[in-house]
Structure formats: C-alpha cells, structure tokens
User: Which sequence fits this backbone?
C-alpha cells in the first residue's frame, strides 16, 4: 500500500502523505493542500471525515463497538476502577498507584472550597433557570476568583489548575441541584470518597443523617466513568478549539458545557425522559409508539436508541443497563415512567425492525432511567453528563496545550453575492 494519496485536478497531480495511528487508522495529511494547489480546500460539513488532531487519549471504533481510555477497555475500567482513578488516567496518561491516587485525592479535597461570593451569583438566578445555563455561568465565574493565567510550561501550575476544577466543579453541580430543589447549600465531607462526597453534597437532607447506599454510589461511579471521554465529539472539540486561542482552562470548560447542552449531544438523556413523559401522558401504550417510530411519515422520534457513532452497539449501554437494573431493584421504585422505559427497551430488543437496524437502547436511555430513579430532576441530567465528562475535557485541553497546537481556524466555501456597488439610501 502506498503511503501517499494523489489528487488530480485540472491536469495537475498533487501528492499528500498518509499517516497511520497506533490502531491502524489511516488519514490523509492535507496541511499543505491550500498552498500546494493555490487555494483549493476541502469541505466537510460537520467534520465527519476530518481529523482535527492527533490524540493519545481515547480510541473509539463505532463499527466494532470499541471504546478505550488510554488503551484500557471501557468494560474493564467500569468494572475494576473508580471514577477518580479514571480521571487520573485520562489526564496524566497512566493509572495511578495507591500513593499517587491518595495524594491526588488529598490535593483535590484541599481545593474544594468555593468562594462565598459565588453564592451571590447563584442567588441571582431564578429557580426556573436551566441548570446547564447556571453551571456554565458559575464555571466561567470561577475565572474571576482564579484570575492568574495558567503557565502551561509549568507542571505545578497545570496540576494546580486541574485539581482546583476537579475540586470545585462537583460543588457547583451540587449547588445547582440544591438551588433547583430549594435546599441549603452543602460542602460535603472530606472523609468520603470523591463520588460518595458528590452524592452527599447533592442529596443530603438538612434534617436527616446522610446514609451511604453502595449500589447507588457504584451506579453513579459507573455512569461518570462511561461519560468521562468520547473522542472528538462536539463539546470536546469546542473545549479544544476555545483552548487553542490560549483561553484558560475554566473558560474552555465553560464553552464545552454550553456545547454539551444541546439535545443532539448531552441533552439526549433529558430528551429520553421527556419522550417517556409524553408517552405516559398519552396513555402509556408502548406498542403504539414503537409503531410510530417505524412509520417514516410520522414525525415522532424514538430517543435513546441507536447512536451516531456506534453502528453496531454502544459498549457502554450493556454496562449501565446492569447498573440500572440493580438500582431499580434496590430502591424498589414504583414509577410508571420507568415501566414505560422497560417496555420500550424490551420491545426494541425483540422487534426485528429495531434488531435488524441495530437500534438498541444506548447509554443515554439507561442513564436517564438511573437519574430519575435517584430523584434527579430531568433538567439536571445534562449537568450530570458534564460532571462525568469533566476529566475528558481537562485531558483534551491539556494535551492540546502541551502539544502546542495552532489556533483553530476552519475555512469556508463562500456562496453569497459577488461584488456589487453600494446604492445610496434615497435610491433603494
């Protein structure tokens, strides 16, 4: 096989190198295309065929249903590691030993205080404000309390910025939820593990002692791991392109949160629950809605089934389905919405129409079920997604800055009016 690709245009031939990744992925390197061809560019709406970078963080093969963080299979990480271990792995490239993990956690706990002035910003939002808007604003506001720009050549400064956001972000998530529910704000407990502390900050009632539920904590831990990174998706690409301007970590993360908010991205699990609620309001007939989903002339969309990237199956869905089953069994919840969800999943797994098209329930479908079972409001689902994706965003931002990647600046093909003369106002 040739290590070059040839483009022929207008009688001229141009050669470009073909590069190969460690998983044998091939890419045509067209960095010199525009200069070599005197102005020709490629056009790729949505960048579906365009590699924006070389990355050593996450490998994804949608056709084979493979997802690996730094070479480790997602199935093995979800089974054997906790979220803080996975965060360390994604950011720094290797699994931590016991001493490294303990030191990492101590450093995070030492930075968990959020300036009291931040509460005034939170108080300014009405309860009706969407939690993602609140979270994005609060994350951006952290810049005001941490004004020093990160020197990316300094390991200490980079590490300090990373532990600060890993420490403060869960507090902001918990505050956003408690604001939504009208509960007093809580800082949690340094004696607890990272995810367990997040759970306490979110759910502890002011008049009740916090009770640890291992099944719930384990399910939440798995959910965060499964969402921790997913290659160059919309929000991750946003974090990298904002960071490419040398914007700080917190500003880049705030932009990523906004990108995640959309229903085609992180908002998908919220859309699942809104769909289930609509089905319930219409009588709860799952067979009726499965028929609607198969009808090409019906505008109804079955949310939470299939995936834009995974063409066979979503490896995360099998893992989280088991966790969802365990949570529902442990909590003994009698919820008609969850019964509708179970009915849809069962029919999709048995109906030839969905089986043949590989439209299986995805991670968004099952994560929405778990979050509802835990009592998390539907509008908070995407916030939980952001909490899980935080270490991936940090890792991608860090990699991009350490690699010295150039500022992102896509080209375009102009299709507007050609040159025309200005017409004076009284002559128009």
Assistant:
């Amino acid at each position: 096989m040739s290590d070059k690709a040839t483009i022929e245009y207008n009688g001229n031939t141009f050669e470009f190198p073909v590069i190969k990744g460690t998983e044998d992925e091939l890419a045509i390197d067209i960095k010199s295309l525009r200069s070599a061809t005197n102005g020709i560019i490629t056009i790729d709406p949505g960048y579906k065929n365009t590699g924006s970078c070389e990355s050593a963080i996450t490998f994804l093969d949608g056709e084979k249903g493979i997802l690996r963080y730094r070479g480790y299979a997602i199935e093995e990480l979800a089974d054997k590691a906790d979220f803080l271990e996975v965060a360390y792995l994604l950011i720094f490239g290797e699994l931590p030993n016991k001493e490294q993990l303990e030191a990492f956690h101590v450093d995070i706990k030492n930075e968990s205080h959020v300036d009291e002035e931040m509460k005034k910003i939170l108080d300014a939002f009405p309860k009706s404000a969407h939690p993602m808007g609140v979270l994005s604003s609060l994350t951006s506001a952290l810049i005001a309390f941490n004004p020093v720009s990160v020197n990316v050549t300094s390991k200490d400064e980079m590490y300090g910025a990373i532990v600060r956001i890993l420490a403060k972000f869960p507090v902001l998530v918990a505050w956003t939820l408690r604001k939504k529910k009208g509960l007093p704000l809580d800082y949690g407990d340094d004696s607890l593990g990272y995810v367990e502390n997040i759970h306490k900050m979110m759910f502890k009632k002011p008049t009740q002692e916090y009770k640890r539920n291992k099944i719930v904590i384990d399910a939440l831990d798995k959910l965060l791991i499964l969402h921790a990174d997913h290659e160059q998706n919309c929000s991750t690409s946003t974090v990298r392109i904002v960071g490419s301007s040398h914007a700080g970590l917190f500003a880049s993360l705030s932009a990523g949160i906004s990108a995640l908010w959309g229903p085609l991205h992180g908002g998908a699990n919220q859309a699942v629950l809104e769909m289930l609620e609509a089905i319930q309001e219409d009588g709860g007939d799952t067979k009726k809605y499965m028929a609607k989903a198969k009808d090409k002339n019906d505008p109804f969309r079955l949310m939470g089934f299939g995936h834009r990237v995974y063409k066979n199956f979503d490896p995360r869905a099998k893992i989280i389905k088991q966790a969802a089953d365990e949570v529902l069994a442990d909590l003994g919840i009698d919820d008609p919405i969850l019964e509708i969800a179970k009915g849809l999943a069962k029919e999709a797994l048995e109906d030839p129409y969905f089986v043949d098209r590989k439209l299986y329930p995805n991670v968004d479908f099952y994560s929405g079920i778990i979050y509802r079972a835990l009592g998390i409001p539907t509008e908070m689902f995407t916030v939980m997604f952001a909490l899980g994706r935080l270490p991936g965003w940090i890792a991608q931002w860090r990699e991009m800055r350490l690699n010295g990647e150039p500022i992102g600046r896509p080209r375009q093909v102009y299709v507007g009016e050609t040159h025309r003369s200005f017409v004076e106002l009284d002559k128009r």
